[in-house]
Design a protein that fits this description.
Phage tail protein beta-alpha-beta fold, 2 domains, 24 strands, Jelly Rolls, globular
Length: 383
Protein backbone atom coordinates (compact mmCIF):
# COMPACT_ATOMS: atom_id res chain seq x y z
CA UNK A 1 0.00 0.00 0.00
CA UNK A 2 1.43 3.41 -0.91
CA UNK A 3 0.98 6.65 1.01
CA UNK A 4 -1.72 7.79 -1.42
CA UNK A 5 -3.91 4.82 -0.52
CA UNK A 6 -3.34 5.37 3.17
CA UNK A 7 -4.25 9.02 2.72
CA UNK A 8 -7.50 7.93 1.03
CA UNK A 9 -8.17 5.57 3.92
CA UNK A 10 -7.74 8.34 6.47
CA UNK A 11 -10.06 10.57 4.47
CA UNK A 12 -12.68 7.82 4.51
CA UNK A 13 -12.26 7.56 8.27
CA UNK A 14 -12.70 11.33 8.55
CA UNK A 15 -15.89 11.32 6.51
CA UNK A 16 -17.28 8.27 8.34
CA UNK A 17 -17.48 6.26 5.13
CA UNK A 18 -14.86 3.69 6.17
CA UNK A 19 -16.03 0.14 6.77
CA UNK A 20 -15.95 -1.37 10.23
CA UNK A 21 -12.86 -3.37 9.24
CA UNK A 22 -11.11 -0.25 7.93
CA UNK A 23 -11.91 1.69 11.09
CA UNK A 24 -10.64 -1.13 13.28
CA UNK A 25 -7.38 -1.37 11.32
CA UNK A 26 -6.66 2.35 11.76
CA UNK A 27 -7.68 2.40 15.43
CA UNK A 28 -5.62 -0.70 16.24
CA UNK A 29 -2.54 0.95 14.84
CA UNK A 30 -3.28 4.17 16.68
CA UNK A 31 -3.44 2.19 19.91
CA UNK A 32 -0.06 0.64 19.13
CA UNK A 33 1.61 4.05 19.00
CA UNK A 34 -0.59 5.42 21.82
CA UNK A 35 -1.43 8.50 19.81
CA UNK A 36 2.18 9.66 20.09
CA UNK A 37 4.61 10.55 17.34
CA UNK A 38 7.43 8.02 17.72
CA UNK A 39 11.02 9.17 17.69
CA UNK A 40 13.04 6.92 15.39
CA UNK A 41 15.76 7.10 12.79
CA UNK A 42 15.11 6.97 9.04
CA UNK A 43 15.63 3.19 8.73
CA UNK A 44 13.31 2.38 11.63
CA UNK A 45 10.68 4.79 10.32
CA UNK A 46 10.78 3.23 6.85
CA UNK A 47 10.54 -0.28 8.28
CA UNK A 48 7.64 0.58 10.55
CA UNK A 49 5.77 2.27 7.71
CA UNK A 50 6.26 -0.75 5.48
CA UNK A 51 5.07 -3.04 8.27
CA UNK A 52 1.91 -1.01 8.79
CA UNK A 53 1.20 -0.69 5.09
CA UNK A 54 1.46 -4.48 4.81
CA UNK A 55 -0.91 -4.94 7.75
CA UNK A 56 -3.49 -2.55 6.37
CA UNK A 57 -3.27 -4.05 2.89
CA UNK A 58 -4.11 -7.51 4.23
CA UNK A 59 -6.82 -6.42 6.68
CA UNK A 60 -8.92 -3.90 4.81
CA UNK A 61 -10.86 -3.76 1.57
CA UNK A 62 -9.32 -1.87 -1.36
CA UNK A 63 -9.60 1.88 -0.84
CA UNK A 64 -11.38 3.90 -3.49
CA UNK A 65 -9.27 6.62 -5.04
CA UNK A 66 -12.17 9.00 -5.53
CA UNK A 67 -12.88 11.51 -2.83
CA UNK A 68 -15.76 10.47 -0.55
CA UNK A 69 -18.86 12.57 -0.22
CA UNK A 70 -18.72 15.21 2.49
CA UNK A 71 -20.53 14.48 5.69
CA UNK A 72 -20.94 16.12 9.04
CA UNK A 73 -18.07 15.28 11.38
CA UNK A 74 -18.74 14.50 14.99
CA UNK A 75 -16.55 13.30 17.82
CA UNK A 76 -17.88 10.54 20.06
CA UNK A 77 -16.38 10.62 23.55
CA UNK A 78 -16.82 6.88 23.98
CA UNK A 79 -14.21 6.28 21.27
CA UNK A 80 -11.62 8.09 23.34
CA UNK A 81 -11.50 5.40 25.97
CA UNK A 82 -10.54 2.85 23.32
CA UNK A 83 -8.35 4.59 20.79
CA UNK A 84 -9.08 8.31 20.15
CA UNK A 85 -11.29 9.53 17.40
CA UNK A 86 -10.44 10.79 13.98
CA UNK A 87 -8.76 14.15 14.54
CA UNK A 88 -6.39 12.61 17.05
CA UNK A 89 -5.72 9.73 14.68
CA UNK A 90 -4.78 12.04 11.90
CA UNK A 91 -2.76 14.43 13.97
CA UNK A 92 -0.64 11.51 15.18
CA UNK A 93 -0.78 8.91 12.41
CA UNK A 94 -0.76 11.27 9.43
CA UNK A 95 2.38 12.97 10.74
CA UNK A 96 3.95 9.60 11.49
CA UNK A 97 3.35 8.27 7.98
CA UNK A 98 3.77 11.29 5.79
CA UNK A 99 6.62 13.16 7.48
CA UNK A 100 9.99 13.13 5.74
CA UNK A 101 13.37 12.85 7.44
CA UNK A 102 14.77 16.21 8.48
CA UNK A 103 16.83 17.72 5.67
CA UNK A 104 17.80 21.01 4.10
CA UNK A 105 14.56 21.23 2.10
CA UNK A 106 12.50 21.70 5.26
CA UNK A 107 14.80 24.46 6.46
CA UNK A 108 14.61 26.19 3.09
CA UNK A 109 10.81 26.04 3.22
CA UNK A 110 10.72 27.57 6.69
CA UNK A 111 13.06 30.32 5.60
CA UNK A 112 10.92 30.97 2.53
CA UNK A 113 7.71 31.10 4.50
CA UNK A 114 9.37 32.92 7.42
CA UNK A 115 7.29 30.81 9.83
CA UNK A 116 9.10 28.82 12.48
CA UNK A 117 7.94 26.99 15.60
CA UNK A 118 8.60 28.73 18.87
CA UNK A 119 11.46 28.18 21.30
CA UNK A 120 13.06 29.45 24.50
CA UNK A 121 12.44 33.17 24.03
CA UNK A 122 11.73 35.57 26.87
CA UNK A 123 12.59 38.99 28.29
CA UNK A 124 13.48 39.59 31.93
CA UNK A 125 12.71 43.03 33.35
CA UNK A 126 14.56 43.78 36.58
CA UNK A 127 13.33 45.97 39.40
CA UNK A 128 15.37 48.94 38.13
CA UNK A 129 13.73 48.72 34.69
CA UNK A 130 16.66 47.03 32.94
CA UNK A 131 15.55 44.50 30.32
CA UNK A 132 17.49 41.36 29.43
CA UNK A 133 16.68 39.35 26.30
CA UNK A 134 17.23 35.88 27.76
CA UNK A 135 17.72 33.93 24.53
CA UNK A 136 20.55 36.33 23.65
CA UNK A 137 22.13 36.52 27.12
CA UNK A 138 25.25 34.50 27.90
CA UNK A 139 25.04 31.60 30.35
CA UNK A 140 25.96 32.41 33.94
CA UNK A 141 25.04 35.21 36.30
CA UNK A 142 22.84 37.81 34.68
CA UNK A 143 22.31 40.12 37.62
CA UNK A 144 22.73 40.53 41.34
CA UNK A 145 19.98 42.29 43.29
CA UNK A 146 20.37 43.00 47.01
CA UNK A 147 20.95 39.51 48.32
CA UNK A 148 19.65 37.72 45.18
CA UNK A 149 21.67 36.43 42.24
CA UNK A 150 20.00 35.59 38.92
CA UNK A 151 21.61 32.90 36.79
CA UNK A 152 20.88 31.60 33.32
CA UNK A 153 21.80 27.92 33.07
CA UNK A 154 23.24 26.10 30.05
CA UNK A 155 19.85 24.42 29.55
CA UNK A 156 18.19 27.82 29.23
CA UNK A 157 16.54 28.06 32.67
CA UNK A 158 16.43 31.23 34.74
CA UNK A 159 17.28 30.50 38.38
CA UNK A 160 17.03 32.83 41.39
CA UNK A 161 19.45 32.17 44.28
CA UNK A 162 19.20 33.66 47.77
CA UNK A 163 22.73 34.71 48.78
CA UNK A 164 21.97 36.59 51.99
CA UNK A 165 18.60 36.83 53.73
CA UNK A 166 19.36 40.15 55.39
CA UNK A 167 20.04 41.91 52.12
CA UNK A 168 17.17 40.38 50.14
CA UNK A 169 14.64 42.95 48.94
CA UNK A 170 11.10 41.62 48.79
CA UNK A 171 9.97 44.76 46.96
CA UNK A 172 12.33 44.25 44.03
CA UNK A 173 9.70 43.13 41.52
CA UNK A 174 10.85 41.26 38.42
CA UNK A 175 8.87 40.30 35.32
CA UNK A 176 9.55 37.57 32.76
CA UNK A 177 7.59 37.92 29.52
CA UNK A 178 7.41 35.45 26.64
CA UNK A 179 6.43 36.74 23.19
CA UNK A 180 4.28 34.81 20.76
CA UNK A 181 6.62 32.10 19.57
CA UNK A 182 8.33 31.85 22.96
CA UNK A 183 8.28 29.86 26.19
CA UNK A 184 10.49 29.82 29.28
CA UNK A 185 11.27 27.91 32.45
CA UNK A 186 12.29 29.71 35.63
CA UNK A 187 12.99 28.72 39.22
CA UNK A 188 12.01 31.26 41.85
CA UNK A 189 14.01 31.90 44.99
CA UNK A 190 11.79 29.55 47.06
CA UNK A 191 12.53 26.75 44.51
CA UNK A 192 9.07 26.95 42.94
CA UNK A 193 9.32 26.10 39.23
CA UNK A 194 7.32 27.99 36.62
CA UNK A 195 6.91 27.26 32.92
CA UNK A 196 5.51 30.13 30.83
CA UNK A 197 3.69 29.40 27.58
CA UNK A 198 3.91 31.75 24.60
CA UNK A 199 2.42 35.22 24.93
CA UNK A 200 2.55 35.13 28.75
CA UNK A 201 4.16 36.90 31.69
CA UNK A 202 4.85 36.49 35.39
CA UNK A 203 5.61 39.28 37.86
CA UNK A 204 7.14 38.28 41.19
CA UNK A 205 9.35 39.61 43.99
CA UNK A 206 13.02 38.67 43.86
CA UNK A 207 12.60 37.46 47.45
CA UNK A 208 9.44 36.42 49.30
CA UNK A 209 8.69 37.95 52.68
CA UNK A 210 5.64 38.30 54.87
CA UNK A 211 2.88 35.71 55.21
CA UNK A 212 2.51 34.67 51.57
CA UNK A 213 4.34 34.20 48.27
CA UNK A 214 2.40 36.19 45.70
CA UNK A 215 2.93 36.37 41.93
CA UNK A 216 0.86 37.73 39.04
CA UNK A 217 0.49 36.16 35.60
CA UNK A 218 -1.01 36.82 32.21
CA UNK A 219 -1.47 34.17 29.54
CA UNK A 220 -0.65 30.60 30.59
CA UNK A 221 1.71 29.12 33.18
CA UNK A 222 2.35 25.76 34.81
CA UNK A 223 3.53 25.73 38.42
CA UNK A 224 5.30 23.18 40.58
CA UNK A 225 5.13 25.00 43.90
CA UNK A 226 7.68 24.36 46.63
CA UNK A 227 5.91 23.31 49.82
CA UNK A 228 5.80 25.79 52.70
CA UNK A 229 2.82 25.41 55.04
CA UNK A 230 3.68 28.63 56.82
CA UNK A 231 3.69 30.70 53.64
CA UNK A 232 0.98 29.96 51.02
CA UNK A 233 1.75 30.54 47.36
CA UNK A 234 -0.76 32.86 45.64
CA UNK A 235 -1.21 33.31 41.89
CA UNK A 236 -3.19 36.32 40.72
CA UNK A 237 -4.71 36.61 37.25
CA UNK A 238 -6.94 39.30 35.85
CA UNK A 239 -10.01 37.55 37.27
CA UNK A 240 -8.95 34.98 39.85
CA UNK A 241 -6.72 34.25 42.79
CA UNK A 242 -5.30 30.75 43.26
CA UNK A 243 -3.90 29.80 46.67
CA UNK A 244 -1.76 26.72 47.33
CA UNK A 245 0.72 25.36 49.86
CA UNK A 246 2.64 23.07 47.53
CA UNK A 247 1.22 21.50 44.38
CA UNK A 248 1.29 21.14 40.57
CA UNK A 249 -1.26 23.06 38.53
CA UNK A 250 -1.80 24.91 35.26
CA UNK A 251 -3.47 28.29 34.79
CA UNK A 252 -4.77 29.35 31.37
CA UNK A 253 -5.71 33.02 31.55
CA UNK A 254 -5.34 34.21 27.97
CA UNK A 255 -7.58 37.18 27.31
CA UNK A 256 -8.68 35.80 23.93
CA UNK A 257 -9.86 32.44 25.28
CA UNK A 258 -13.51 31.81 26.09
CA UNK A 259 -12.76 30.95 29.73
CA UNK A 260 -10.05 31.24 32.34
CA UNK A 261 -9.16 27.76 33.60
CA UNK A 262 -7.13 26.35 36.50
CA UNK A 263 -6.35 22.62 36.23
CA UNK A 264 -4.96 20.69 39.18
CA UNK A 265 -2.55 17.80 38.65
CA UNK A 266 -1.29 17.22 42.18
CA UNK A 267 -2.10 18.48 45.70
CA UNK A 268 -4.92 20.92 46.38
CA UNK A 269 -5.71 24.51 45.45
CA UNK A 270 -8.29 27.13 46.30
CA UNK A 271 -9.61 29.30 43.46
CA UNK A 272 -11.41 32.55 44.24
CA UNK A 273 -13.18 34.90 41.86
CA UNK A 274 -15.92 37.51 42.22
CA UNK A 275 -16.72 36.52 45.79
CA UNK A 276 -16.86 32.79 44.96
CA UNK A 277 -14.49 30.04 45.97
CA UNK A 278 -13.93 26.42 44.92
CA UNK A 279 -11.48 23.83 46.26
CA UNK A 280 -9.89 21.60 43.64
CA UNK A 281 -8.68 18.02 43.91
CA UNK A 282 -6.33 16.40 41.35
CA UNK A 283 -8.10 15.88 38.04
CA UNK A 284 -10.46 18.82 38.55
CA UNK A 285 -10.64 22.16 36.80
CA UNK A 286 -12.09 25.50 37.84
CA UNK A 287 -13.27 27.74 35.04
CA UNK A 288 -14.69 31.21 34.68
CA UNK A 289 -16.40 31.99 31.38
CA UNK A 290 -15.35 35.23 29.75
CA UNK A 291 -18.84 36.75 29.73
CA UNK A 292 -20.10 35.20 32.95
CA UNK A 293 -19.46 35.76 36.63
CA UNK A 294 -20.04 32.22 37.87
CA UNK A 295 -17.02 30.17 38.89
CA UNK A 296 -17.59 26.50 38.05
CA UNK A 297 -15.74 23.28 38.79
CA UNK A 298 -15.72 19.98 36.92
CA UNK A 299 -13.76 16.77 36.47
CA UNK A 300 -11.42 16.57 33.48
CA UNK A 301 -10.86 13.36 31.54
CA UNK A 302 -7.13 13.95 31.13
CA UNK A 303 -5.56 16.57 33.40
CA UNK A 304 -2.20 16.10 31.67
CA UNK A 305 -3.73 17.52 28.50
CA UNK A 306 -3.63 20.95 30.16
CA UNK A 307 0.18 20.82 30.29
CA UNK A 308 0.82 19.14 26.93
CA UNK A 309 2.27 22.48 25.74
CA UNK A 310 4.98 22.21 28.42
CA UNK A 311 5.82 18.69 27.22
CA UNK A 312 6.21 19.66 23.57
CA UNK A 313 2.73 19.07 22.15
CA UNK A 314 -0.44 20.80 21.17
CA UNK A 315 -3.19 18.63 22.63
CA UNK A 316 -6.80 19.24 21.70
CA UNK A 317 -9.80 17.98 23.65
CA UNK A 318 -13.05 18.65 21.78
CA UNK A 319 -11.55 21.87 20.45
CA UNK A 320 -13.27 23.78 17.67
CA UNK A 321 -11.18 25.07 14.72
CA UNK A 322 -10.87 28.57 16.18
CA UNK A 323 -9.47 27.17 19.46
CA UNK A 324 -6.99 25.02 17.50
CA UNK A 325 -5.81 28.00 15.48
CA UNK A 326 -5.43 30.27 18.53
CA UNK A 327 -2.86 27.89 19.99
CA UNK A 328 -1.06 27.59 16.68
CA UNK A 329 -1.06 31.36 16.17
CA UNK A 330 0.65 31.97 19.52
CA UNK A 331 3.32 29.30 19.11
CA UNK A 332 4.26 30.05 15.49
CA UNK A 333 3.84 33.81 16.00
CA UNK A 334 1.61 34.13 12.96
CA UNK A 335 -1.63 35.83 12.10
CA UNK A 336 -4.51 33.55 11.19
CA UNK A 337 -6.93 34.72 8.53
CA UNK A 338 -10.25 33.04 7.79
CA UNK A 339 -11.81 33.01 4.35
CA UNK A 340 -15.44 32.06 4.76
CA UNK A 341 -17.13 30.12 7.54
CA UNK A 342 -15.18 27.70 9.72
CA UNK A 343 -16.09 24.01 9.57
CA UNK A 344 -18.39 22.85 12.37
CA UNK A 345 -16.10 20.22 13.85
CA UNK A 346 -14.35 19.29 17.06
CA UNK A 347 -10.88 17.88 17.36
CA UNK A 348 -9.04 15.57 19.73
CA UNK A 349 -5.38 14.69 19.38
CA UNK A 350 -1.79 15.84 19.47
CA UNK A 351 0.61 17.71 17.22
CA UNK A 352 4.32 18.01 18.11
CA UNK A 353 5.15 21.68 18.65
CA UNK A 354 8.45 21.28 16.81
CA UNK A 355 7.08 20.43 13.36
CA UNK A 356 7.77 22.69 10.42
CA UNK A 357 5.18 25.10 9.08
CA UNK A 358 4.73 22.87 6.01
CA UNK A 359 4.14 19.74 8.13
CA UNK A 360 1.73 21.64 10.35
CA UNK A 361 -0.39 22.78 7.42
CA UNK A 362 -0.38 19.25 5.97
CA UNK A 363 -1.60 17.77 9.25
CA UNK A 364 -4.34 20.37 9.57
CA UNK A 365 -5.52 19.61 6.04
CA UNK A 366 -5.68 15.87 6.86
CA UNK A 367 -7.96 16.69 9.76
CA UNK A 368 -10.28 18.94 7.78
CA UNK A 369 -8.80 22.41 8.41
CA UNK A 370 -7.68 23.47 4.93
CA UNK A 371 -4.83 26.01 5.16
CA UNK A 372 -2.23 27.77 3.06
CA UNK A 373 0.90 29.72 4.02
CA UNK A 374 1.30 33.28 2.78
CA UNK A 375 4.11 35.44 4.11
CA UNK A 376 3.66 35.46 7.89
CA UNK A 377 0.06 34.25 7.84
CA UNK A 378 -1.86 31.01 7.91
CA UNK A 379 -4.99 31.36 5.80
CA UNK A 380 -7.86 28.98 6.57
CA UNK A 381 -9.89 28.22 3.45
CA UNK A 382 -13.24 26.36 3.41
CA UNK A 383 -13.20 23.18 1.35
Amino acid sequence: MDTGKLNDLLKKYNNQTATAEERKAVEDWYERINGEVPEMDTADLAGTKADMFNFLEHHIAPVATTAPAKSRFRIYRSYLAKAAVFAGLLLGIAYFFFKKPANGDGKQLLAHQNIQPGGNNAVLQLANGTKVVLNQAADGQISSQQGISIVKTKSGELVYHLREQAGANAYAMNTVTTPHGGQYHLILVDRTEVWLNSGSSITFPAAFSGKERKVKITGEAYFEVAKNKAKPFVVQTGKSEITVLGTHFNVNAYSDEEAEATTLLEGAVSVKSAGQQVLLKPGQQASLQKNASRLSMHEVEDADAAVAWKNGYFQFDNADPAAVMRQISRWYNVDVQYQGALPVKQYNGKIPRGVSAKELVEMLSYSGINCTLQNNRIIVIPK
